[in-house]
Amino acid sequence: MNQLDQKIYMQRAIKLAEYGMHTCKPNPRVGCVIVKDGQVIGEGWHKKTGGDHAEIVALKSCEVDPKDSIVFVSLEPCTHQGRTPPCIEALINAKVSEVIFSSMDPNPKVSGKSVDILNAAGIEVSHGLLSDQSDELNIGFFHRMRFKKPFVRSKIGSSIDGKIALSNGESKWITSDDSRYDVQKLRAESCAIMTSNQTVLADDASLNVRIDDFYDDDQPLRIVVDSSRKCSGNEKIFQLPGETMIHSERVNQSLFEHLGSMEINNVLVESGPRMNGALLESDLIDELIIYMSPCILGSDAKDMFDFPVIEKLSDRYSFAVHHLDKIGADMKITLRRESV
Questions:
Q1: Distance from C-alpha of 333 to C-alpha of 330, rounded to nearest angstrom
Q2: Which helix (H) or strand (E) holds 7?
Q3: Half-sphere exposure of residue 231, counting CA atoms within 13 Å on the CB side?
Q4: Catalytic residue set
Q5: Is the peptide bond before 26 cis (omega within 30 degrees of 0)?
Q6: What is the pLDDT of residues 245-265, one digit of tens each?
């Protein structure tokens, strides 16, 4: 099979993995395509934690015997017994001839082990094809496996002069309807959404996902940081479907380590300048997503971040531009720490 065909099949596997974007957390998003004699004979994706993995779904869907087929899977097949049996056993039993996977699994229980096991069974193995795309799809899972804490992205809506609200607190709406809908998609992809008690009390924020075909069972965990214990528990955010957790201390490294132990892959921060400043100062933001509206609010308006004055340029906080997109009338700027 030529390299172009391999890329087409792997691209399809990655596309299938996206179908589990909202439903399979905390597990990684994985897709699988099985090809025999130049034809796709089966495909599948991991839909829900505890359910069949992508390879099993694909094998069960095969229209003909998968013996001597080539399996394209977006993530290394699992080798350990978890909530479901290891996928390599099913591939070996199916007598496939070759397995091509995109990303190496960062889970130390799995990473690299499938290659030797499959090779020992006479199955050819290669990996790395379109791994940048597959890695990006599971950036939160990969981050948690490597650093024992979730990937933290902060969403900010601002004017082009970097302001998020007028001096009187008015901020509805700086950005466009299109940007606000895009934020809903960010929420849906997240394991948890974090905010401050100030945001809850000032805006009566909901922070739930409100898009079509999204089920309340998949609502991200909502985390309210309330070190001053000002929330009563009767606010709207506590009454909506899904779980809301109060964190009664300040945000720090130990909070995110705890969230990692809860299998939280990624956290979306939606808050004001004080929390964003505290997270930035503590080096806890992995990614900034700024929806920038083509308007100017002036010098008296509120800044994105509230933290101590920087005296030297060498002490500045630096990010790399990861992506630029136009969303409606706004610019979506994705900035990522270079160490991520």
A1: 10
A2: helix 3-17
A3: 28
A4: 55
A5: yes
A6: 999 998 999 999 999 999 999
How many whole angstroms separate alpha carbon 256 and alpha carbon 150? 7
CA nearest 197: which of 162, 233, 241? 233
Sign of the alpha-carbon dihedral angle for 303, 308, 311, 314: negative
Between strands 192-196 and 70-75, the pairing is: unpaired
φ, ψ at 327 (rounded to 5°)? -120, 105
Distances (CA, A) of 37 to 70, 96, 198, 227, 296: 9, 12, 61, 62, 60
pLDDT per residue as tens digits for the range 104-145: 999 877 788 899 999 999 999 999 999 999 999 999 999 999
Query: Within 13 Å, how many C-alpha atoms sit on residue 127's CB side?
Result: 21
> Can you give 138-205 as a three-state secondary structure string?
CHHHHHHHHHCCCEEEEEEEEECCCEEECCCCCCCCCCCHHHHHHHHHHHHHCCEEEEEHHHHHHHCC
What gap in Å lies between CA 8 and CA 322, rounded to an integer? 25
For the segment 40-96, what is each residue's pLDDT rounded down to a tens digit? 999 999 999 889 999 999 999 998 999 999 999 999 998 876 667 789 999 999 999
User: What is the gyration radius of the CA atoms in the chain, in angstroms?
Assistant: 22
Q: What is the pTM of this model?
A: 0.92
To the nearest 10°, the Cα dihedral for 256, 134, 73, 19? 80
Which residue in 303, 252, 314 sits closest to 281, CA to CA? 252
Instruction: Mention every residue, 6+ apart, whose C-beta is less than 8 A from residue 186.
Output: 153, 155, 268, 289
User: Hey, what are 88's tokens?
Assistant: 């390599």
In the numeric block, which tokens belong to residue 148?
């024992």
